[in-house]
Amino acid sequence: MMDQSIQFDLDLIKRYDKSGPRYTSYPTALELHEGFGETEYRQHIEKSNAAGGPLSLYLHIPFCDTVCFYCACNKIVTKNRAHAVPYLDNLCREIEMQGALFDRNRPVNQLHWGGGTPTFLNAEQMRRLMDTTRAHFNLHTDDSGEYSIEVDPRETNDRTIAELRALGFNRISLGLQDFDPDVQKAVNRLQSKQQTFAVLAAARQEGFRSTNIDLIYGLPLQTVQSFADTLDQILAYAPDRFSIFNYAHMPSRFKVQRQIDEAALPSPAAKLEILQMVGQKLTDAGYVYIGMDHFAKPDDELAVAQRQGKLYRNFQGYSTHSDCDLVGLGVTSIGRVGDAYMQNYKELDEYAAAISQRKLPVFRGVDLDADDKLRRAVITQLICHFELSFEKIEREFDIVFNDYFAAELANLQPMKTDGLLDVTPAGIQVSTAGRLLIRNICMVFDKYLAQKQQQFSRVI
User: What residues does the Radical SAM core domain cover (predicted)?
Assistant: First the structure.
C-alpha cells in the first residue's frame, strides 16, 4: 500500500518557498505561441484519430454574477443574463465544428464544465448545451463517464442540482473559500453555510458520486482559528474531496485583486501555520494527500488511481484519465490533442469573429518535441506519484537517465541532503516531507523555467 501521508517541516518549507509552475501541463501554458493555429490543430486531430482512444471535453462558461476579489480565472462579470445568449450560440457552433473533426466512435470518458460560473446558465440553456454536445460527441448514456461541473452555491438550489444530475453530471465541485463573515466581506463573496450545505446535501440525495469543496488560504483577515472553524464545519459534512489553494496575490496581473487590502493579508508565517493546521486536520479526519493542494478520502477515485500508479494531471488538475485527449471548447479554453497544446481566443469578440467565419477559434499553441515529451513524463510521474522509475523512462524514451539528466541529478543533491527525496540507482523517491514541495522538485527538470520564473505564484 502506497504511503499517502505528508510531513510538515517548517524549516524546509521556508527555505524552498519560491515562485514556480503548478504543472497542469509541461511545457506550461507560457510556451504557447501564435505560430500555432487552426491548421496545426487540424493536423493534430488527424493524428489523434489515427491513434484512437477516448476523449475528455472541457467547456468554459465565463460568466459570473459578481466578482470575487481574489479571482485569477478568465471570467466576465455581469448581472445581465442576456449576455450568455450569443455566447451559448457560438459555443454550440464550436461544438458542432470540433465534433465533426473527431471520430464519432471515440467515447467521451470525461467531461467538465468550468468557469466563471457554469450555473450562470438557466436550466433550458444548460440542457441545450448538453444536448448539442451529445449530438456531436460520443457521450456515455449509462452514467459510466466522469462528468463534472463547478457550481456556485449562491447560484444553485435543489432544482438545479436535480436538473444537473438528469443531464448526466455525476461529480460536483462547490466553490466556498471561507465561511468567516469578515473574510467574505473582504473578498466580496458573501455565502452562507445554509446555501452551501443545502447544495451538498442535494447533490448526495440526487446520487452525485463525488463532491468536492474548494477553499483558499491566505485571504485577507484569515487566521489559523478562523480557517480551522471553516474546516470543522465542512468536515462535519464529509465531502469526498478538498481542493485547498494558496491565494496568490498578483495584482499587477489580475486587476480585480487590487480591491484587496494588502495590509489585511496574513503574514507568510501565518499562512504556513494555516497550511500546517489544514494538513493535520484533514489527515486526522481520514483524508489522504493527493498532492498540489488536493486531499481525498482513501476510497475516492483519485486516491485509488494514485495508489495504482494511474493518476494524471491536466489543465483541470488531477485526473484519472491519462489516456484521453483533452478537447477545449469555449473562450480561453486549453486543450491537449496528440503531442500539442492549444488555446482558444481569450476575448469574446475575437472568439465570436472566428466562429462567425466557421473557423476554429484556436489562436495559439505549441508542438511538443521529443525532449518536451520526455520531461513531461518525468514531471507527471513525480507530481502524481511522488516517485520515478529510471528504468521505466529509459524503456519508454530510449535514453540512459543518468547521462541525459546528469545536470538535473546533480541539482537534486541539495534536496537529497535536505531530506526532500532519495535518489538511488533505481530512481527517485520523494519523502513525506518533500511532498508539499513537489513543485520545487519538478522545477529541476523544467528547461524553460529560468527566464519565466517571475510569472508564477509561490509554491506555498
Answer: 49-285
Same domain, 303 and 221: yes
Specify if 35 maps to a domain.
Answer: yes
Domain count, the chain: 2
177 marked among binding-site residues:
yes
Residues 422 and 321 in one domain: no
- 116 marked as part of a ligand binding site: yes
104 and 73 belong to one structural domain = yes
Counting every residue, how long is the chain?
460
* 417 belongs to an annotated ligand binding site: no
Cis peptide before 116 (omega within 30 of 0): yes
In this structure, is residue 346 part of a structural domain? no
> Is 124 labelled as part of a ligand binding site?
no
pLDDT in tens, the chain (460 residues): 566 667 777 788 888 877 788 888 999 989 999 999 999 999 999 999 999 999 999 999 999 988 899 988 878 888 889 999 999 999 999 999 999 999 999 999 999 999 889 999 999 999 999 999 999 999 999 999 999 999 999 989 999 999 999 999 999 999 899 999 999 999 999 999 999 999 999 999 999 999 999 999 999 999 999 999 999 999 999 999 999 988 988 898 889 999 999 999 999 889 889 988 999 999 999 999 998 789 999 999 889 988 888 888 887 788 887 789 999 999 999 999 999 999 999 999 999 999 999 999 999 999 999 999 999 999 999 999 999 999 999 999 999 999 999 999 999 999 999 999 999 999 999 998 898 899 999 999 999 986 665 556 665 6
117 is in an annotated binding site: yes
Which 8-state DSSP code applies to residue 411? H
Q: Is 214 a known ligand-binding residue?
A: yes
23 assigned to a ligand binding site: no
Residue 342 placed within a domain: no
Based on the fold, state whether residues 43 and 117 are members of the same structural domain: yes
Query: Is 189 annotated among the ligand-binding residues?
Result: yes
71 annotated ligand-binding residue? yes
For 374, residues 6+ apart whose C-beta sits below 8 A from its C-beta are 393, 397, 399, 404
Shared domain for 9 and 96, answered yes or no, is: no
Query: Does the annotation flag 106 for ligand binding?
Result: no
**180 and 43 both lie in a single domain:** yes
Q: Is 448 a known ligand-binding residue?
A: no
- Separation CA 242–CA 150 (nearest Å): 13
Known binding residue 7? Answer is: no
Is residue 115 part of an annotated ligand binding site? Answer: yes
Query: Does 144 lie in the same domain as 15?
Result: no
Are both 64 and 142 inside the same structural domain?
yes
* DSSP at 458: B
In angstroms, the first-to-last Cα distance of the chain is: 28
Beta bridge partners of 4: none
Q: Examine the fold and report which residue of 327, 347, 378 is the final residue of a domain before the chain moves on.
A: 327
> In angstroms, rounded to a whole number, what is the distance separating the alpha carbons of residues 4 and 306?
9
CATH of the domain at 394: 1.10.10.920
Q: Which of 397, 368, 337 is nearest to 102 (CA)?
A: 337
Query: 452 lies in which domain range?
Result: 1-27+369-460
